[in-house]
Amino acid sequence: MAPSWSVSSLGKKKVLFIMGTTGSGKSKLSINLGTQFPCEIINSDKIQVYRGLDIVTNKMAPSQQGDIPHHLLSIIDDPDYDFTANEFCKNVHDALELITEKGNIPIIVGGSNSYIEALVNDPKGEFQSKYDCCFIWLDVSLPVLYDYLDIRVDEMVDAGVVDEIRREAYDPKNSDYSRGVRRAIGVPELHYYFHILQNDSSDDVDEAYKTRVFLHAIDTMKINTHKLAKNQVTKIKRMVNELGWKMTRIDSTQVFEAVLRGEDYNHLYQEIVLKPSVEVVRRFLDY
């Protein structure tokens, strides 16, 4: 029998969602919560379901996962496979059954909001009839977030993302970036740079031009990451304002401002993000 705190008074099993844009700290918060409650994590990032490209897709390393079981992470080997919203929903339902049978709380975390909407608002209403949901929305002021995301792209470059993409995703015979893991921001943006390197002869392309192409690709990565974040905020606001989803919004802008200033942000994170989130989950679970 499932523990009483994992089932609502109406007999529904409880599910926690961590919402937010790319780079807003969703994965970190899910790990923090998973160390305080009996939880397992279900990835809802449609790019992170693919194996490989760990830097560009911002996957948490196994050493960062806190021994918390993760589901739907790096489960697809074919980089061109079209992982649809329907497949996502089926896989999530399977994972939910496994997790709740053990009496644990599923935390669904990731930025693919259209897939999350398809899961929660399925046409037959099966999900909402079976599960009681709690939504935590990690929000960050977009201008502040943009500055942070730019730094994150630079850190990805320093971590070897260019070599990773060239090694795992670049195909000189295939410039179709409309499906699979090759949709990840960074992969299409670097295609022309890799094309130049592939076809470089010492007299045709000078180093200055290659540098300009490379820097343009990195700038485009940053711009497209901004666009992604803005679109994600728009979808979340639509869920709240049009679909009527009740979310607890946690504004972590001050934390990110401290990060950008190079200050120790751990106390702010504890007070502004973690403690309120723990309290929300505690009330939700009656734990």
UniProtKB/TrEMBL annotation:
Group of enzyme by EC:
transferase
Q: By its UniProt entry, which PANTHER family does this protein fall under? A: ADENYLATE ISOPENTENYLTRANSFERASE, TRNA DIMETHYLALLYLTRANSFERASE
| Chain's role | Involved in cytokinin biosynthesis. Catalyzes the transfer of an isopentenyl group from dimethylallyl diphosphate (DMAPP) to ATP and ADP.
**What GO cellular-component annotations does this UniProt entry give?**
mitochondrion
Protein name in the entry: adenylate dimethylallyltransferase (ADP/ATP-dependent)
Q: Which GO terms describe its molecular function?
A: AMP dimethylallyltransferase activity; ATP binding; ATP/ADP dimethylallyltransferase activity; tRNA dimethylallyltransferase activity
The alphabetized list of GO BP terms reads: cytokinin biosynthetic process; tRNA modification
Provide the coiled-coil residue spans. Answer: none
Q: Which reaction does it catalyse?
A: dimethylallyl diphosphate + ATP = N(6)-(dimethylallyl)adenosine 5'-triphosphate + diphosphate; dimethylallyl diphosphate + ADP = N(6)-(dimethylallyl)adenosine 5'-diphosphate + diphosphate
Keyword check for Nucleotide-binding: yes
Of which family is this protein a member? Belongs to the IPP transferase family.
Say yes or no: keyword Transferase present: yes
* Keywords noted in UniProt: ATP-binding, Cytokinin biosynthesis, Nucleotide-binding, Transferase, Transit peptide
What EC number(s) are associated with this protein in UniProt?
2.5.1.112
- Tell me which Gene3D superfamilies the record gives: Crystal structure of tRNA isopentenylpyrophosphate transferase (bh2366) domain, P-loop containing nucleotide triphosphate hydrolases
- Organism whose genome encodes this protein: Arachis hypogaea (Peanut)
| Top-level lineage group | Eukaryota
